[in-house]
Amino acid sequence: MCNGCVHKEYPDRGNTCLESGSYLMNYLGCANCHQRDFVLISNKATEDDDGEEIVTYDHVCKNCDHVIARHEYTFSVVDEYQEYTMLCMLCGKAEDSISVLPDDPRQSAPLF
């Protein structure tokens, strides 16, 4: 992973969790070949560990195959919520939780 390729290491992305793709707004350019071109995804792997799906891949410079960052995305169902997390030097860090019920109990107003 290369901190010379990004504007900010692990920017806070709130609840935006990316299963694939790249956050190019944070990409300075390749510190190895000094080009600012497309970022490719390589070494993508998906594993299922006790009901938790983990997706990992590398962000790689299109021109010189320099590894810019390693991306990790997780998905799981805990109680009645879908839980998402993302951790990547390029794309940032984020967490999200969404109810599997039609109406999210956390969003409902109290009756009295």
Automatic annotation (TrEMBL):
GO BP terms: fibroblast growth factor receptor signaling pathway; positive regulation of DNA-templated transcription
Keyword Glycoprotein: no
GO molecular function, one term: zinc ion binding
Top-level division of the source organism's lineage: Eukaryota
InterPro entries, per database record: Churchill_sf, Transcrpt_activator_Churchill
Entry keyword set: Activator, Developmental protein, Metal-binding, Transcription, Transcription regulation, Zinc
Membership in a protein family: Belongs to the Churchill family.
Protein name, per record: Protein Churchill
Organism whose genome encodes this protein: Poecilia reticulata (Guppy)
